[in-house]
């Protein structure tokens, strides 16, 4: 089978969830036009995520007129007098079949308790965000620009972006756009740092696809069935194997499975355009500090994919043992959170 057709098949298999696409990277800001807003009262998820203590849900209106769901959890105030230590805000970006709720479960409470203002976004047509006109939610460019618009209007100081899986690839596009000479204006606000969690590598899924097909054919079939055919939505064992550790209890997997079913009303991207839009443009003299974080038991992004991303940013990868792809929801979610906290605390030292 030809390389192109294999990549097309496996893109659908690996990512309608993670390995998705965008328009050409040659597109500039001047070519972007706002999408038509399709506002609806039906945006609420039929399986609601109940906010935890200290969390609130707001909606950020984008230039297109569409509104983006944001779950906010501000840092806990110190009870001592004197100037409070200033810490960079954290902005979290999910992957496909997820939404802002996936960060609000564990990591928002953890990082707000550690002194950070936290914002978890739901990309368009995901979670309770509005749905644009068309068959897909957007492109790498439009999703990155939506994040940038939120940062520009709602975040007071340069934030650290935290992206999971395909959200990590969107953040890579954001980074590549910082200071780009192709932009007519500074659309992308400065960042303090970026954290790529089990991220799709900058070249997309092609390398992963061929490695899985030749070295892990059974795994390749399972991932294709799970994500392309959406079998994770009906098979509890397959959902667990795709996203979580084997020790996660059935009732917890079931809860996340139901939330994931409801999280995506449109695919994030037109998958057929993936190969034409990647790799992400290189970022010589990368203007931000980057942490590349992987999971040892990741069923989707393998060690070579993790290493590719780390090499792209000239940083050593960090791989967390006994954690699966959905690091922020998994049984040992605190392992990755502690690695991130340590890395952030070391930025200013």
Automatic annotation (TrEMBL):
Signal sequence, start to end: none
InterPro entries, A to Z: AB_hydrolase_1 (IPR000073), AB_hydrolase_fold (IPR029058)
AB hydrolase-1 domain ranges (all copies): 90-329
GO molecular function, one term: lysophosphatidic acid acyltransferase activity
Stretches assigned to coiled coil: none
GO biological process terms held by the UniProt record: lipid homeostasis; phosphatidic acid biosynthetic process
Family matches, as PANTHER family: ALPHA_BETA-HYDROLASES SUPERFAMILY PROTEIN, RE40534P-RELATED
Name of this chain's protein: AB hydrolase-1 domain-containing protein
Protein species of origin: Arachis hypogaea (Peanut)
Taxonomic path: Eukaryota, Viridiplantae, Streptophyta, Embryophyta, Tracheophyta
């Amino acid at each position: 089978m030809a390389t192109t057709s294999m990549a097309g098949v496996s893109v659908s298999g690996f990512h309608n969830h993670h390995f998705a696409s965008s328009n050409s990277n040659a597109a500039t800001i001047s070519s972007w036009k706002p999408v038509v807003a399709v506002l609806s009262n039906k945006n609420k998820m039929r399986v609601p995520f109940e906010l935890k203590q200290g969390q609130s849900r707001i909606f950020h209106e984008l230039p297109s007129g569409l509104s983006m769901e944001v779950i906010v959890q501000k840092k806990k105030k110190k009870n001592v007098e004197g100037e409070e230590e200033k810490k960079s805000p954290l902005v979290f970006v999910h992957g496909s079949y997820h939404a802002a709720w996936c960060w609000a479960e564990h990591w928002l409470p953890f990082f707000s308790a550690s002194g950070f203002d936290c914002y978890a976004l739901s990309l368009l047509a995901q979670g309770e965000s509005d749905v644009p006109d068309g068959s897909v939610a957007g492109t790498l460019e439009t999703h990155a620009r939506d994040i940038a618009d939120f940062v520009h209007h709602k975040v007071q100081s340069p934030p650290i972006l935290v992206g999971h899986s395909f959200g990590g690839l969107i953040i890579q596009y954001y980074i590549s756009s910082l200071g780009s000479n192709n932009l007519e204006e500074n659309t992308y606000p400065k960042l303090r740092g970026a954290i790529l969690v089990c991220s799709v590598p900058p070249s997309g899924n092609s390398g992963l696809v061929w490695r899985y097909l030749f070295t892990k054919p059974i795994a390749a079939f399972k991932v294709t069935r799970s994500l392309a055919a959406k079998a994770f939505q009906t098979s509890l064992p397959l959902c667990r194997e795709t996203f979580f550790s084997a020790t996660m209890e059935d009732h917890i997997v079931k809860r996340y499975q139901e939330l994931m079913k409801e999280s995506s009303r449109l695919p994030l991207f037109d998958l057929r355009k993936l190969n034409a839009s990647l790799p992400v443009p290189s970022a010589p003299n990368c203007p931000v500090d980057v942490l590349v974080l992987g999971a040892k038991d990741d069923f989707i992004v393998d060690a070579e994919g993790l290493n590719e991303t780390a090499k792209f940013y000239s940083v050593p990868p960090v791989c967390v043992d006994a954690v699966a792809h959905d690091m922020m929801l998994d049984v040992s979610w605190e392992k990755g959170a502690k690695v991130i906290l340590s890395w952030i605390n070391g930025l200013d030292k």
